[in-house]
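Per your request, structure below.
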């Protein structure tokens, strides 16, 4: 059974930092491109970072230079280091494959519970 468990969220002031973690089930985690996504209230879920098996990374412009995605294949874990946080970064953050739905052996529209990030003074 596939499972994605995100953690590390919290309340942080503007300009602050947080490091999110996501532990994924599955024996072939290391060959999968993984991503972080977020969803703010009233908005659609959006992609914020991706990392390939070869550790090549990509980000949308609105987080580039502030967010860094890394992975530890020995721990089946992907991380998201978020610096210079802004109030508009407030959202529930999720990890999944990139594109999503491929953490198991076949497509599954499964998402973990996410972790809440709130940026506020």
């Amino acid at each position: 059974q596939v499972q994605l468990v995100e953690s590390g969220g919290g309340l942080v002031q503007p300009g602050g930092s947080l490091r999110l973690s996501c532990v994924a089930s599955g024996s072939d985690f290391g060959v999968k491109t993984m991503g972080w996504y977020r969803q703010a209230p009233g908005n659609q879920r959006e992609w914020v970072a991706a990392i390939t098996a070869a550790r090549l990374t990509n980000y949308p412009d609105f987080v580039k230079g502030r967010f860094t995605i890394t992975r530890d294949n020995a721990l089946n874990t992907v991380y998201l280091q978020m610096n210079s946080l802004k109030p508009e970064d407030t959202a529930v953050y999720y990890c999944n494959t990139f594109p999503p739905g491929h953490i198991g052996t076949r497509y599954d529209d499964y998402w973990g519970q996410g972790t809440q990030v709130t940026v506020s003074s």
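Strands lie at 4-7, 10-12, 18-24, 34-39, 46-51, 57-58, 67-72, 77-82, 91-97, 115-119.

Regards,
D.
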